[in-house]
Design brief:
Layout (H helix, E strand, L loop, with lengths): L2 H55 L3 H9 L10 H4 L2 H11 L10 E6 L4 E5 L5 H5 L3 E4 L9 E6 L3 H8 L1 H61 L7 H29 L11 E4 H18 L3 E6 L5 E4 L1 H17 L6 E9 L2 E7 L7 H4 L23 H11 L3 E6 L5 E8 L11
Parallel strand pairs: 6-8
Antiparallel strand pairs: 1-2, 1-4, 3-4, 5-7, 8-9, 9-11, 10-11
Bound molecules: adenosine-5'-triphosphate and magnesium ion.
Adenosine-5'-triphosphate (ATP) binds next to α10 and α12.
Length: about 425
C-alpha cells in the first residue's frame, strides 16, 4: 500500500472517529436538555392545573358573584387560609406533580414575596431554594395580585433526569467505547500487517540476493564447461564441475533451510530427544567454526564450567541452535570476531552462552529479533546476508525443549545469547494449549 495513502486512511479514520464521538456527545447533551425542558414543562403545567382546581374549589360566593359580574374583588380582606385548604393543596400536589418528582424528597410552599413569609406547604430544608425555584406560579387569580406564589423545589433534579435517560446513556457509552476499541484494534492490526508485509519484502529481497550468487557462479562455471577446448584440460573440467556441484549443494541446503523454517511452528515441531554430551557438541562446533573465524583474524574460545553437561535433547536441533548463535556472532562482528562459548549449571539444567564483541543490539531491537523474518534494519545495505529466521528457529526449538533463550547486549559492545537447556523437561509441544 502506498505510504501516503496509508497515512491518509489513518488520518481520515481518526478524524471520523473523533467526529462521531463528538456528534454522539452533542446529541446526548441535547437529549438531556430536551428531557429537562420536558420535565420543567410538566411540573409547570401541573402547578397551573393545581391553581385552576383551587380556583374551582373556592366557594366564596361573593367572589364568584363578583367574578361573574366582572368586578374586581377586594382580596385584601381575605386571608390566604380562607382561600386555600392545606390538605387539599397537598392532595393536589401529590396528584398533579407527584408522578414527575420524588414526592417525599420534593418540598413545596405557598409563600409571600412581599414579606418573605411562608403560608403553607411541606417546606423544611429548602426554604431558600423554594423561593428561587424555577417551578413557580403566582396565585394572582386567587389572592391579591403579586403577593402569593406556589413553588416546588425538586432536589437532585439533574440526577433524576439523567436517571431516566440512564439506559440510553449507557448504550451510547457502550457503543462509543466499542467503536474506539474496534478502531484501535483495526489500526493496530493494519500497522502489524504493514510491518509484516515490509518484512516479507525484505525476506524476498534477501533470498533473491542469496540465491543470485550461487546461480551466477553455476552459470559461469557451466559456460566455461561449454567452451570447446575445455576437455583438453581435465583439471579445469574437474574444477568447474566441482564448483557447480558445491554451489548446487549450497543452493539445495539454503532452499531446504528456508522451506523448513518458514513452515516452522509449534504444531509441526518434532523432537527426538536422546542423551547428549553438550560439551562434546560445543567442542566440535568450535572446531568447525575456527576456520571461518581465523579467516577474519578472530578467535573462538571455550570455557565450559558446567559439571553436569548431559542433557536429554534432539541432537540435530541442538547443533543447529548453537550454530545459529555462533554464525550470528561472526556475521554481526564488523571487526575481527572474538567469540567465547561458555557453559554452566543453573536450575536443573545447563546454560550455554555465546558471547561476541560485535556491533551489539539496541534494547528496542532485542525484543524483536526472535520474530520470524525480523532483521535489524540496515537501510538498503545487503553486506550481511541472512533471512531473519535463525533466531526465530532457535527460540521455537529451545522452547520446544522446555528451555529459554535470552539476550544481553549493548550497542557497540557486543552481545551475549544465553540458551538454557533443562536436563530432562522436554515438553511435548504438540500437546501445548
Ligand atoms: N550477535 C549479534 N549481534 C548483533 N546483531 C545480531 C546478533 N545476532 C542477531 N542479530 C540481529 O538479529 C537479526 C535476526 O537474526 P537471525 O539470526 O534471526 O537472522 P539473520 O542472521 O539475519 O538471518 P539467518 O536466517 O540467516 O540467521 C539479525 O538480522 C541481526 O540484525
Ligand atoms: Mg542468523
Amino acid at each position: 500500500m502506498n505510504k501516503n495513502f496509508f497515512k491518509l486512511i489513518i488520518y481520515v479514520a481518526t478524524f471520523s472517529l473523533v467526529g462521531i464521538v463528538f456528534t454522539q456527545l452533542y446529541w446526548v447533551k441535547k437529549a438531556v436538555d430536551y428531557k429537562e425542558e420536558q420535565f420543567n414543562n410538566s411540573i409547570h403545567l401541573g402547578l397551573k392545573s393545581i391553581v385552576n382546581q383551587l380556583l374551582n374549589d373556592y366557594n366564596d360566593s361573593t367572589l364568584k358573584m363578583m367574578q361573574e359580574q366582572g368586578e374586581k374583588c377586594d382580596f385584601e380582606r381575605t386571608s390566604i387560609y380562607d382561600v386555600i385548604d392545606h390538605k387539599e393543596l397537598d392532595k393536589l400536589i401529590h396528584q398533579e406533580v407527584g408522578c414527575y418528582i420524588d414526592y417525599h424528597e420534593a418540598e413545596y410552599a405557598v409563600f409571600s414575596k412581599v414579606n418573605n413569609s411562608f403560608a403553607m406547604g411541606n417546606y423544611d430544608r429548602y426554604k431558600a431554594e423554594i423561593m428561587n425555584s424555577q417551578h413557580l406560579v403566582s396565585l394572582d387569580c386567587l389572592f391579591s395580585s403579586g403577593k402569593y406564589y406556589l413553588a416546588v423545589h425538586v432536589p437532585g433534579q439533574k440526577n433524576l433526569i439523567l436517571y431516566r435517560l440512564l439506559g440510553w446513556l449507557l448504550l451510547s457509552a457502550l457503543f462509543i467505547l466499542a467503536t474506539i476499541f474496534s478502531y484501535y484494534y483495526t489500526i493496530l492490526t493494519l500497522l502489524k500487517q504493514k510491518k509484516l508485509s515490509e518484512m516479507k519484502t525484505d525476506f524476498v529481497n534477501n533470498m533473491t540476493h542469496e540465491f543470485k550468487t550461487p546461480i551466477s557462479t553455476i552459470s559461469l562455471a557451466s559456460e566455461m564447461l561449454l567452451k570447446p577446448n575445455v576437455f583438453e584440460s581435465p583439471d579445469k573440467t574437474q574444477k568447474y564441475a566441482g564448483i557447480i556441484y558445491d554451489e548446487n549443494v549450497r543452493l539445495e541446503k539454503q532452499v531446504e533451510q528456508v522451506l523448513q523454517i518458514t513452515i516452522l511452528d509449534k504444531e509441526n515441531t518434532k523432537i527426538k530427544p536422546i542423551n547428549l554430551d553438550l560439551h562434546k557438541i560445543i567442542h566440535k562446533l568450535a572446531e568447525n567454526f575456527k576456520l571461518s573465524v581465523k579467516e577474519r583474524d578472530g578467535s573462538i574460545v571455550t570455557q565450559l564450567d558446567a559439571e553436569d553437561f548431559t542433557i536429554e535433547a534432539d541432537r540435530v536441533h541442538v547443533i543447529n541452535m548453537i550454530s545459529n548463535l555462533i554464525d550470528n556472532a561472526i556475521k554481526y562482528s564488523p571487526d575481527a570476531p572474538n567469540i567465547k562459548l561458555e557453559t554452566r549449571n543453573i536450575k536443573q539444567g545447563v546454560q550455554v552462552s555465546v558471547i561476541d564483541n560485535g556491533m551489539g543490539i539496541s534494547p528496542e531491537h532485542q525484543r524483536q529479533i526472535f520474530k520470524k523474518l525480523y532483521r535489524i534494519p540496515t537501510g538498503n545495505r545487503h553486506d550481511v546476508k541472512g533471512f531473519g529466521l535463525g533466531l526465530f528457529y532457535t527460540k521455537t526449538m529451545i522452547e520446544a525443549h522446555g528451555g529459554t533463550i535470552n539476550v544481553k547486549s549493548e550497542i557497540g559492545n557486543g552481545s551475549q545469547f544465553d540458551l538454557y537447556f533443562p536436563f530432562h523437561s522436554v515438553i511435548d509441544i504438540s500437546n501445548e494449549e
